[in-house]
Amino acid sequence: MAIHSPDALTRAGLASHLQHDRRFCETSADRADVTVVVVDTANAATLSLLHSLSASSQARFALLVGRQWQADIFAAVDRGVRAVLWRDSFTPAAFFQALLTVARGGGSFPPALQGTLMRQVQWTHHEVLTPRGLTASGVSPREVDVLRLIAEGLELSEIAEKLAYSERTVKYVLYGLMKRLNLRNRAHAVSYALRTGLI
Question: What is the C-alpha to C-alpha distance for residues 120 and 108, in angstroms, rounded to an integer?
Answer without folding.
Answer: 17
